[in-house]
Amino acid sequence: MNKDELTTKISAIGGVEKDVVTLVLNIYEDVIKDALQDGKDVTLKGFGKFTVAKYKPRTCRNLITGELIPIPERTKVKFKPSEKFM
User: How many CB atoms lie within 10 A of CB 43?
Assistant: First the structure.
């Protein structure tokens, strides 16, 4: 399901105009992104938890050439669904 299909379904179930649902969903995404960029976890009871994982810089080796390749520090967003969600 893509975002357009999701907004259409929410609009149909909730009896709300699709434009309003799209606006609320966009704000919802922005709030979650902002919280994660600030290093905060986002927990949605009954749905799951978004967290930010930081990975230290490291060095890898190209298996073909044997050259060492530096991998910079990076962050990733992780999601763990709640037990009720599954």
Answer: 12
Query: What tokens appear for 86 in the block?
Result: 């599954």
- Inter-helix orientation angle 3-14/18-37, to 10°: 120
Three-class SS of residue 46?
coil
Main-chain dihedrals φ then ψ at residue 4, nearest 5 degrees: -65, -45
Distance CA 55, CA 14 (A): 41
Whether 7 contacts 21, CB under 8 Å: yes
Q: What is the pLDDT of residues 45-78, one digit of tens each?
A: 999 999 999 999 999 999 999 999 999 999 999 9
pTM for the model stands at 0.74
